[in-house]
Amino acid sequence: MPTGKIIKSLSGFYYVQSEGQVYPCKGRGNFRKKKITPVVGDDVTFDKDENNEGYILEIKERKNEFVRPPIANVDQAIIVASVAEPEFKPLLLDRFLVLVEAKSLSPIIVFTKTDLLDDASMEQMEEYKSVYESLGYTVVWGSSKIEHSLEELAHHLADHTSLIAGQSGVGKSSILNALKPTLNLETNDISKSLGRGKHTTRHVELIEMYGGLVADTPGFSSLELNEIELDELPDCFPEMRKYGEHCKFRMCLHHKEPKCAVKQAVEDGDIASFRYEDYLQFFEEIQTRKPRY
To answer: Does 201 score more than 50 pLDDT?
Structure first.
């Protein structure tokens, strides 16, 4: 039986790429009975007929998966954050980073629209950039003419399945259009009243680019931390993984515990205070959420 990867899901069909060809497939009936839903990114075994249409027979084990958007087997996340129009919000970027870290993905941060900043704002953004780079994150510095930073971004795509995500209106579709001009993805201007754009993507699809696959992901602006438990949250912050080893208590959550090395590192300026404040906000959000049954 041939094997392949689902690269698009649309109108009840799963489009499976195998050996350079794409086959429209349906899922087996027993998937529904077992409450299994194929998603984009799944590696599958399938059967095809003389019309090159087929049925998915088996979904191979996933190394990770997202519910919103429905996608599996992602290697890295390209997180797009504009520094102006809409303005940069560290809390929002950190929320994306926590979700990505929880799935053990490698994040690449792309700052867009840097040419729209005045000198004082640029200096502040460079401080943010240095904080994220010090945590080991790859940061790509892009202007509103995204072509200027494409070469740096493109070499990170080869041999990876990448998810592209970010707040509405930050330039995700513009980046994809610039990487692959034949896409002609719809882009929207920022709403002046709301300060954000509208999602212009209607479905999840993996697109071949620079020797890799890239997903555009509608719905990813819903950033609830529903799948992360309190004791998992510190592991989603690289600096807390580093300093947390020196806390007095082995299961320290860096909140109200005494002799906490993380809180000491914040006081000493070794951990950025805005990152710790965002951590506390996520901590409270997870702690007060309603239990699921």
So the answer is: no
